[in-house]
Design goal:
Elements lengths: L8 H6 L2 E6 L2 E6 L2 H9 L34 H14 L4 H19 L4 E2 H18 L5 H7 L16 H16 L5 H7 L1 E2 L2 E2 L2 H14 L2 H16 L2 H8 L3 H12 L6 E4 L4 E3 L2 E3 L4 E4 L1 H4 L34 H18 E15 L4 E15 L2
Parallel strand pairs: 2-9
Antiparallel strand pairs: 1-2, 3-11, 4-5, 6-9, 7-8, 10-11
Helix pairs in contact: 4-5, 4-14, 5-6, 5-10, 7-8, 7-9, 11-14, 12-14
The structure holds protoporphyrin IX containing FE (HEM).
Protoporphyrin IX containing FE binds next to helix 5, helix 9, helix 10 and helix 14.
C-alpha cells in the first residue's frame, strides 16, 4: 500500500544526486539520507552565507533583505540564532501546551457546528496563526490580521512567490511600535538586541521577522491539511491513536517525515566542488534533498507507507546540523495536539472535495498539501 508516492525513488536508486533545473539554474540535489546529513553538517563546503539563495527557487525577486539566522554561516550564525532562541524554547512549557490545546478545541468546537469545513482556510490557517501569537508573545488578536492576509500572501498560484510587501509593511509597523514602547514580545526583543556589541539595523530585524512568518506558515498548513486527508483514507487510525496516547509521539514524527513540506533547501559551493561525483562550480548551488532523504529505503522500511508506530524515525524534516529548525518544538507540539484532539473528539473524516497542491518542476512532480480541502467531520458520541 502506497500512502505517499515518492517521486525521487528511481533517481535515488540510480545515483546519489539528481540535476534539478530551476529558473535557468541547474541545481545538483543530494538524495540519500547519509549524504544529505553529511552535507548539512559541512557548512564550509556547502554554505548558507548566500542572501536569497537558501530557498529553492531563490527569492531575489521577492524580498530585499537577507533572512536571519538562516542565510548565514557559523560563527556569526551562532550569535544571530541566540538572539531569538528563547522565544522558540517556550513550546516545552506546560502553560504554552495548555494554550495550544485549548486553541485546537475551540477550533474543533466551531468546525463540528458546520456541515462542511474547508480545512486550509478554516482550520489550518487559524491554528497556525493563533499559535504563532503565543510563540511571539503578542496579543492573540494580531492573528486576525495574519488570517486576513489569506493563505497565498507569500505564494501565488502554482508555488510562485509574491513580493512580500504586506509582510514588510506589517513588520515595519511592529518594529516602530516596539521602538516607541518596548514590551516582552518578539519585535521588542529584536529592537533591543545586540549583535557583536551593536544594535541591529532595521534590515536585520526585518530579516528575522520575514523568516519567522514565511518559514512557519506553509509548512504547518500543509502538514495539517495532509493529516486531515490521511484520516479519510485510514479511519481506524484515529482509534489506534486514541487507545494509547503514547502513540501520539511516534505518529507526530511519522506525519512530519512523510508530509515534509520543504522538498529541498539550497547551499552555495564557495569553490569548485566534487559533489558525490558531480562537479559543481564555485558560486553554484546544491540542494539538500530533505524529502528524498526521508524516503531512503536504506534507512526507512517501506518508506511510502505511513506507519504511525514507526521507530526509530531519523527523518530530516527539521534539517540537520547548525540550522536545525528553530520552530521544531512548536511545530511538533501543534501536530501532536492536533492528533490528540482529533483522536479524542472525531469519529470520522470524509473528504468531499480536494484540490491538491502539486509542485510541478522540470525534474519532478511532488504533492505537497492542499490548496483547498473540503471535509465533513463526524463527532464521537
Ligand atoms: C529552519 C523545516 C516549522 C522557523 C528550518 C530548516 C528546515 C525547517 C528543514 C533548516 C533550514 C536549513 O538547513 O537551511 C520546517 C518544517 C516545519 C517548520 C518542516 C513544520 C512542519 C517552523 C516554524 C517556525 C520555523 C513553525 C517558526 C515559527 C525556522 C527558523 C529556521 C528554520 C527560524 C532557521 C534556523 C537557523 O538557521 O538556525 N526549518 N520548519 N520553522 N525554521 Fe523551520
Amino acid at each position: 500500500m502506497q500512502d505517499v508516492p515518492d517521486p525521487f525513488r528511481e533517481a535515488r536508486r540510480a545515483g546519489p544526486v539528481m540535476k534539478c533545473p530551476f529558473h535557468g539554474e541547474d541545481i545538483t540535489m543530494i538524495l540519500r539520507h547519509g549524504d544529505v546529513r553529511a552535507a548539512a553538517k559541512d557548512w564550509q563546503t556547502y554554505s548558507s552565507d548566500a542572501p536569497f539563495r537558501v530557498p529553492i527557487p531563490s527569492e531575489e525577486k521577492v524580498r530585499s533583505i537577507r533572512q536571519l539566522p538562516i542565510e548565514t554561516d557559523p560563527p556569526e550564525h551562532t550569535e544571530w540564532r541566540a538572539i531569538v532562541n528563547p522565544f522558540f524554547q517556550q513550546a516545552k512549557e506546560p502553560e504554552y501546551i495548555a494554550r495550544v490545546e485549548s486553541l485546537i478545541n475551540d477550533l474543533l468546537d466551531h468546525a463540528l457546528k458546520k456541515e462542511t469545513l474547508e480545512v486550509v482556510g478554516e482550520l489550518a490557517l487559524p491554528y497556525q496563526s493563533r499559535a504563532l501569537t503565543y510563540l511571539l508573545k503578542v496579543p492573540e488578536s494580531e492573528a486576525n490580521t495574519w488570517i486576513d492576509w489569506g493563505v497565498h500572501v507569500f505564494r501565488g498560484e502554482g508555488g510562485t512567490f509574491k513580493k512580500g510587501i504586506v509582510l514588510e509593511d506589517y513588520l515595519n509597523e511592529q518594529f516602530d511600535r516596539a521602538e516607541k514602547k518596548p514590551g516582552e514580545d518578539f519585535f521588542s526583543a529584536l529592537v533591543q538586541a545586540n549583535f557583536q556589541g551593536r544594535p541591529l539595523t532595521r534590515e536585520e530585524m526585518l530579516g528575522f521577522g520575514n523568516l519567522t512568518f514565511a518559514g512557519g506558515r506553509d509548512t504547518i498548513i500543509h502538514n495539517v491539511s495532509s493529516i486531515i486527508a490521511y484520516f479519510n483514507e485510514h479511519p481506524s487510525q484515529l482509534s489506534f491513536l486514541r487507545e494509547e496516547p503514547k502513540r501520539l509521539i511516534h505518529a507526530t514524527e511519522e506525519f512530519i517525515r512523510a508530509y515534509m513540506p520543504l522538498t529541498q533547501i539550497g547551499r552555495v559551493c564557495p569553490v569548485d566542488t566534487n559533489v558525490l561525483g558531480t562537479p559543481v562550480k564555485a558560486g553554484e548551488r546544491i540542494g539538500l534533498g530533505w524529502a528524498p532523504a526521508n524516503f531512503d529505503e536504506a534507512v526507512f522500511d517501506d518508506p511510502e507507507t505511513i506507519d504511525l508506530a514507526r521507530k526509530p524515525n531519523p527523518h530530516l524534516s527539521f534539517g540537520f546540523g547548525k540550522h536545525l529548525c528553530l520552530g521544531a518544538a512548536h511545530a511538533r507540539l501543534l501536530i501532536r495536539i492536533l492528533l490528540k484532539a482529533l483522536s479524542e473528539r472525531i469519529e470520522g473524516i470524509e473528504v468531499i472535495e480536494a484540490k491538491a497542491n502539486i509542485e510541478h518542476e522540470k525534474s519532478f512532480d511532488r504533492a505537497n498539501g492542499f490548496d483547498s480541502l473540503m471535509v465533513a467531520l463526524t463527532a464521537r458520541v
